[in-house]
Design goal:
CATH architecture of the largest domain: 3-Layer(aba) Sandwich
Structural class: alpha/beta
Number of domains: 2
Number of strands: 7
Radius of gyration: 23 Å
Number of helices: 15
Shape: globular
Distance between the termini: 22 Å
Largest sheet: 5 strands, parallel
CATH class of the largest domain: Alpha Beta
């Protein structure tokens, strides 16, 4: 039987970088393999972050690439294969070809625990591999387990098994309440999320211990491990914690998150990038495209070169139109209005909180 491998993908963004630091400091005995999927189209700041992380970790971050035997950079190789068809939110071929396929080739058929940097203040799961030999763990969250594991664990058909697993735990006077929650069947008036939250509120460590014992009855990779250090992890890390980890470790916050001031029609504001990923990532907001144009003009012009035969990075607006002076002015004015309306709602020193409406940290979801 193959040894269980522990993997952690570095996307170049803040959350995955902070997770690498966190795991190194808190679980130094875990033999974690760190990797990154290099599209060849990242910002220089991304590569600098990876270099800084390697120094901190004392370990090489393995570079995975698609199209290994091609003389071209990975993205350029595949865009030719797709006849110039640009990726989009509806056709994320870049994710599959440049991220997922190289990762699954790297994993092979080995049993793998994949650590994912989704924070405790995020309401998303990210990409979960359909391969049965890959199991995702989320160390920053209150619930470290993936949704597929929770679906099985809390299924009505498993009530007696879960009850017996909790029966072997020391619940410090909470046994009666645990039995009540466990025996409450899922229904239209009591859903899985409610049951999950109630059990976690009863005790995170106890919940983790029960799930780990449950996994021994399955074929998940963790069923092959005699123990798992993260069972005792009850920390919940949010955005401010992530920045603190990066700053105090010496690795530093990626430079593209740092606010750059601008002025338009007598009003001042600031912008930055809200995500990692390729410099032409189609998930960028329009203000971020303006940031790229003004802060990395040579990269913006390269992004423009890919827009051919009606294919554009932004639906219904080519980059050549976006950089017209009056259009940039409108984008900045709209951005200022939006940020001003949010300032009263978001109390944070980080521009990222204001800029990001639906943060996805680029292709972080590709790191399974």
């Amino acid at each position: 039987m193959s040894k269980v491998r522990h993997l952690l993908g570095i996307s170049g963004g803040k959350d995955s970088a902070a997770l690498g630091i966190y795991m190194k400091k808190k679980y130094p005995n875990l033999d974690i393999e760190y990797y990154t999927s290099d599209t060849g189209k990242e910002l220089d700041e991304t590569y600098q972050l990876i270099d800084n992380l390697e120094i901190f970790l004392g370990k090489k971050i393995i570079r995975l690439t698609g199209a290994d035997n091609s003389p071209e950079l990975p993205f350029d190789h595949f865009i030719k294969m797709f006849n110039g068809y640009l990726p989009s939110s509806n056709a994320r071929w870049c994710t599959k070809k440049l991220k997922l396929d190289p990762f699954e080739k790297f994993v092979g058929n080995d049993p793998v625990i994949s650590y994912v940097g989704i924070r405790g203040d995020e309401d998303r799961e990210g990409y979960i591999s359909k391969k049965s030999n890959i199991q995702s763990i989320f160390p920053f969250r209150k619930n470290i387990w993936s949704e597929d594991v929770i679906n099985k664990f809390l299924a009505n058909s498993n009530i007696q098994l879960v009850n017996s697993l909790y029966g072997g735990l020391s619940l410090n006077g909470k046994t009666e309440r645990a039995n009540e929650i466990i025996h409450s069947t899922l229904s239209s008036t009591f859903n899985q999320q409610q049951k999950l939250n109630q059990l976690l509120d009863l005790g995170i460590k106890e919940f983790n211990a029960a799930v780990f014992e449950f996994l021994k009855t399955t074929n998940y990779p963790l069923s092959k491990e005699p123990s798992f250090d993260l069972i005792d992890n009850d920390e919940i890390l949010i955005r401010d914690d992530i920045f603190n980890i990066l700053e105090t470790s010496g690795v530093g916050v990626p430079a593209y998150y740092k606010a750059v001031e601008f002025e338009i029609n007598g009003k001042t504001s600031s912008y930055s990038r809200s995500r990692s990923g390729c410099f032409f990532c189609f998930y960028q907001q329009k203000i971020e495209w303006v940031w790229l144009y003004e802060q990395h003009n040579e990269l913006f012009l390269k992004a423009m070169e890919y827009e051919k035969d009606g294919y554009t990075w932004i639906q219904d607006e080519p980059l050549s139109e976006l950089i017209k002076p009056d259009r940039i002015e409108r984008i900045k004015e709209e951005y200022i209005k939006r940020t001003e309306s949010k300032k009263n709602k978001i109390q944070s020193p980080y521009l990222l909180d204001i800029l990001s409406e639906a943060e996805d940290e680029g292709c972080a979801s590709c790191f399974i």
